[in-house]
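Q: Got a minute? One more chain.
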Amino acid sequence: MVAPPNSTETTAAALFQNHDFIHFDRNTNLGIAVAKYIAKQRIQPKNIIELQSTQALLAMVSAGLGVSMMFCPDRRLTIGFPVRELKLATNASSLHISYVTRKADEDKRALAVTLEAFRHAAALRESGLA
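A: Always. Here it is, folded:
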């Protein structure tokens, strides 16, 4: 969950109670996962703004216009748009990624680099650095 940098609330419920909700497009996997989490937690957002851009979403949150829920934001974006990040409860939705390639593509450099990026991200997550 991302909140304005100067917000002080410590729970998702308190953030939703005090801030508008900036929702990522409900027709995407992220939007669906967020909607399910909110329904499961019985959270009633005040007002809902729906966007199709994570960059715009982070910019609005950074400016104090609301709170949002998203997968780990791109760190490059949070340099220009600082936000407070809050971890959700352990029963929050998560994204599982499987990586499959064809035998004919095993020597493709682009696929090898992508796989290495996934492995690096998983190692950072395991170590608690991401």
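A: The two ends are 14 Å apart (CA to CA).
Q: Perfect, thanks.
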